[in-house]
Amino acid sequence: MKANQERQKKNDPNRVEIYSHQIFNATSDIMKGLDKMSFQQSKDMIGKSLRQDYSILEQAAQQNQNKYTAEVAHQVQVDQSLQLIPCPYVKASSHKKYTLVLDLDETLLHYYEINEYDGDLRIRPGADDFLKSLSEYYEIIIFTAAMQDYADWALDHFQNKSCISYRLYRQHASPFGGFYVKDLSRIGRDISKTIIVDNIAENFQLQPENGIFIKSWFIDPQDTALLELAPLLISIAESNVNDVREALKLFRLHMLEQMAKGVMNPTMYLTQNIKEILKKYSESLSATETKLLEKNSQIKA
Ligand SMILES: [Mg+2]
Hints:
This protein folds into three domains: 2-63; 82-223, Rossmann fold, CATH 3.40.50; 239-301. The chain contains eight helices and nine strands. The protein has helices at residues 2-11, 13-78, 127-134, 148-155, 225-238, 244-260, 266-272, 274-300, and strands spanning 98-102, 109-113, 119-123, 138-143, 164-168, 174-176, 179-181, 194-198, 211-213. The strands form three sheets. Strands 5-4-1-8-9 form a five-stranded parallel sheet. A two-stranded antiparallel ribbon has the order 2-3. A two-stranded antiparallel sheet has the order 6-7. The longest helix has 66 residues, at 13-78. Bound molecules: magnesium ion.
């Protein structure tokens, strides 16, 4: 009786369906496991291959980064007695209304010191194009805390080095608070028309309102920081702003607003709206001026 019941249960179509379902689920789990395993194996293999290819460069970049960080502090101690050369540093006249001061190391390029005798200089993606396109709008000045011999050698690697109007070096920087501060007031250009781009914000601590901090670049071939920055700088020049500090302040506020709204890439959003923002800025300035004029005429009357 019991055996018959068991036989019936096994032949029950519902029971077969349940078994099929269980087998299907078990197979799926195995397949999922296999997928995960294959994926992990592939990932490990790709990772291993990449690590082999890039390990030398990564090591060199890391060593150089550590050395660079150590050097900054060390150099300032060594060069506390550095005699500043008389300012202004550049000739009085410029045919460009605006000046763009650019840092060199980790902003436009990176030099990997593989060993004492050998190294590899790499130019940041888009840097050459950046120099060329921005030189149409700005007088370009390189301001580096590096030694002149190295800086000149490094700058000669740029195809568009002729776009650079002046080169300023360590002797032009002011050692202060553990950094080589780049004092824009010593350059000899109108501070309201000068922008500095540097990967160390402390380097422009004397004129923070004129500064744009750019992330340090060491090796990433996919880096787009200069590409993203160019439209902002071009728009400021094209919009003929009176004071670049006001325009940059506006951009910073706008970017913070976007971040507060949860915009994932406020920089990209910002570059799409630069002209609109500057237009509003000019309109608000005109409105303020008109109000002031009206107020003055009322007082006079
Ligand atoms: Mg730098």
